[in-house]
Amino acid sequence: MVSVQPVRSGADLGRFLKLPFRLYRNDPNWVPPLLSDLKNTLTPGRNPFWNHAERELFLARRDGTVVGRIAAVVDRNYNAYHQSKLAFFGYFETEDDLEVARALFAAVDRFARDRGLTAVYGPANPSLNDEVAMLIDPFDSPPMVKSSYNPAYYPRLAEAAGFVKVKDFYAFSMDTDQPIPEKYERVVKALLSRPEIEIRHPDLRNLKPALDLVKQVYNDAWSKNWDFAPMTGEEMEELARQLKPLIITDFISMVMYKGEIAAMSIGLPDYNQVLKKMNGRLFPLGWLTFLTERRRISQGRLWTLGVMHKFRHQGFDALLYYDALRAARRHGYTHGELSMILEDNLPIIRPITNLGARICKTYRVFQRPV
User: Fold this and answer.
1) Confidence band of 285 (pLDDT split at 50, 70, 90)
2) Concatenated DSSP letters of 232-269
3) 174-363: same fold as 2-168?
4) CATH number for domain 2-168, candidates 3.40.50.10350, 3.30.56.70, 3.40.630.30, 3.40.30.10
5) For helices 10-23 and 35-42, what crossing angle results, to 10°?
6) For residue range 212-246, what is the model confidence (pLDDT) as tens digits?
7) Burial degree of 364 (CB within 10 A; 0-12, 13-18, 19+)
């Protein structure tokens, strides 16, 4: 029989963190997370997300052996903003065993019922602002930085346990050497010739001004999105702290219109190419691997892009894609991914496909009533 119990000790937290290392040991596409970062993310007091959220971590065991894990999360800010009564499941990992999956999901249901919640969405690790959704197709390549990954049997287990689709996300792929369509380049150059329009890149020595602009765009551009979850100032600062060692200044682009922020995008080198060789640890040799291998990164991910509502339909999104592509070429990247994009976000999808990008992966958020 399968038993599911909450994580209550440091030893069990260690088992929770390390289970994927066993489950994925023969999967060439899995990228080990940095264990210290994952522990900080899950620890109240270290991650400001938990100032307005609550979580319970669970381990599933059979005959004393850990065979699965899951997190149950309630984000009070999300529910207040959307006037919803949702719990989220995240960090779902299991052997290919429907009994284990059902037992884990049942634990999340109990967590939700105890708090008067009516439905469960997921996965969200730990929120919709972090790694989100389950990969459903294809499973033939490693994930890019800050993207989720899972075995092909996970969607089958979720559906067998009664979960159904609530929303899909797409990842788009393109090679950096493919030609830019003439019409696209003509539009971009016309915009750049206007004196009131400027593209800026932040000063990494003083990120505070750029961070204020990013927060301004985020709170406006995403405010009507299905997956929008308000971020506090503390969360934004923590995100900046995490990303600062990873970012390259010309991968962060800000479109200014008459000195006012109109749109912004953030691209990230694909540090998963480095993490894959670190086996989840910075010490004793992880730092050396990081410093050596980061120079060999050959691709990147356009991680986020937003246009303020009052500046939409003016081509500023095309400017951001164009600037990101030029930056990737300057750094010698041969490939790029633009993700994650909601399946029905056509104003963002159209300029991507016009530039020549094509869907390469599909991810799904599932739901079921409690």
Assistant:
1) low
2) -HHHHHHHHHHHTTT--GGGEEEEEETTEEEEEEEEEE
3) yes
4) 3.40.630.30
5) 130
6) 899 999 999 999 888 898 889 899 889 888 888 88
7) buried
Which residue is listed with tokens 């994925």?
24
Beta bridge partners of 365: 167
Residue the block writes with tokens 């699965």:
68
Q: Which residues contact 356 (CB under 8 A, 6 or more apart)?
A: 174, 178, 179, 180, 181
Hey, what are 70's tokens? 């899951």
3-state SS, residue 151 = coil
Report the CATH superfamily, name and number, of domain 174-363: Gcn5-related N-acetyltransferase (GNAT) (3.40.630.30)
Q: Is the dihedral of CA 124, 127, 131, 133 positive or negative?
A: positive
Convert the pLDDT of each residue in 338-362 to its tens digit. 999 999 999 899 999 999 999 999 9
Q: For residue 182, give both structure tokens.
A: 């003439």
DSSP E strands in the chain: the ranges are 2-6, 53-62, 65-75, 86-94, 119-122, 124-125, 131-132, 134-137, 164-175, 197-200, 252-257, 260-269, 299-307, 335-342, 358-369
The pLDDT score that the predictor gives to residue 291 is: 83
Task: Residue 173: name the closest of 327, 295, 341 by CA.
Answer: 341
Q: Are residues 326 and 180 in contact, defined by beta-carbon separation less than 8 angstroms?
A: no
Name the pLDDT band for 284 (thresholds 50, 70, 90): low
Note the pTM of the prediction, 2 decimals.
Answer: 0.95
Burial 118-136 (b: 16+ CB within 10 A, else e): ebbbbbbbbbbbbbbbbbb
Retrieve residue 363's tokens: 């991810």
Domain ranges of the chain: 2-168, 174-363
Task: Give the DSSP H or E segment for 113.
Answer: helix 98-114
The Cα–Cα gap between 274 and 249 comes to 19
